[in-house]
Amino acid sequence: MFIVHIADITMFYAPASGGVRTYLDAKHRRLGIKPGIRHSLLIPGSHLSEEDGVYTVPAPALPFGKGYRFPLRLAPWRNVLHDLQPDLIEVGDPYLTAWAALDARRQLDVPVIGFYHSDLPLLVSNRMGNWVTPNVEAYVSKLYGNFDRVLAPSQIMADKLTGLGVRNVFVQPLGVDLQTFHPDARDPELRAELGIDEQTHLLIFAGRGSKEKNLPVLLDCMKRLGRRYHLLLVGSSMPAVVPDNVTVVDEFCPAAHVARLMASADALLHAGDQETFGLVILEAMACGIPVVAVAAGAFKEIITADCGVLCAPNNPLAMANAVREVLGFGSTVLGQQARRHVEQHYSWDTVVNSLLGHYHAVLGNQWPLIVNG
Q: 72, 97 in Cβ contact below 8 A?
């Protein structure tokens, strides 16, 4: 029996990575046990190596980049792909590795899929200003116009690509680890550790403390809510000065630790208004807690009325009122509904099966020939 060989390539992979690494790790585990499929993952590292189908390709470390590396030479990536001879390549970032995959396609004559995980024009404009946006949009249009199929994690991202003239764009949501992020991860001792009583409502935000997360909105919201509410800020680059009813865990935490904190809270807060998907939202819902987030970005697609409340962006008063609404309704009932929602729609098995449908579509008649020998 022949085997379909799928190769993923990305620079978005580091010890403290977010959603892209979570997606790739979950995918690698599941494809590794499916009959008739081989999965290789190409990521940056200090030297060329391979272990369990994960290939590290030399790339220099980014200064202050928290473990990220930025490839500068196309040839090493193209050469590894050429040696692997995959039947299909999926690209996970819009930088040099994407062009290496397209270069390898010319040699191997295989389809290449691009997964548009990040809104590149928005990211660049946040850091450099709007003057550069037209050039970045032209770059995105050119690059993603080269792929045989383009996947986007949400409809809002798919619409942006379509608006730039990119064709063959399909929505492919990400998933959540339903075993790690589970209501059973709740720790009844957490409130005592934080020095708060059982009557105090415990809220949580987990993620990077980057500008687009709008953490000042959360801090202002907590001032308005007062002492009967307490917020946990969990992740790297968190603010140093916070209200008395906020506790900061300023470090990257393993998934199991985040799950313990989430499952022990009453609700997750998220003020980010530029999210392309919002994996942390699914993780909180999987832990059995409802969500209070802003009606912006992809949140409008993944948060239903059964799972939480959406409020106006950049409005601390609206967020405080939404918190009171959720907790007044009863966070336990909403949390149970949220858990059921992600079980039905966002398991990684569901996501991987959907991905296989995309792969089948671009491989066409090759797929049954390869799988069935």
A: no
Q: Is 299 helix (H, G, I), strand (E, B) or coil?
A: helix
- Mean pLDDT throughout 279-304? 95
Q: What angle in degrees, to the nearest 10, is found between the helix axes of 348-363 and 19-31? A: 80
Given a contact cutoff of 8 angstroms between Cβ atoms, the answer to whether 78 and 108 are in contact is no
| Coil, helix or strand at residue 159 | helix
Token pair, residue 182, equals 């589970």
Question: Do 144 and 166 form a contact (C-beta atoms < 8 A)?
Answer: yes
Indicate the DSSP class of residue 47: S
| Angstrom distance (rounded) from CA 196 to CA 125 | 41
Q: What tokens appear for 352 in the block?
A: 């991987």
Surface-to-core class of residue 139, CB atoms within 10 Å of its CB (0-12 exposed, 13-18 middle, 19+ buried): middle
CA atoms within 13 A on the CB side of 164: 26
**Among 333, 303, 228, 315, residue whose Cα is nearest residue 271:** 315
* pTM exceeds 0.90: yes
Count of all residues that appear for the chain in the document: 373
Q: Per residue in 49-91, pLDDT tens?
A: 999 999 999 999 888 667 788 898 999 999 999 999 999 999 9
Count Cβ atoms below 10 Å from residue 369 Cβ, excluding itself.
12
- 123-134 residue pLDDT tens: 788 888 888 888
Taken in order 188, 190, 191, 192, the sign of the CA dihedral is positive
Distance CA 148, CA 328 (A): 49
Distance CA(209)–CA(221), nearest Å, equals 16
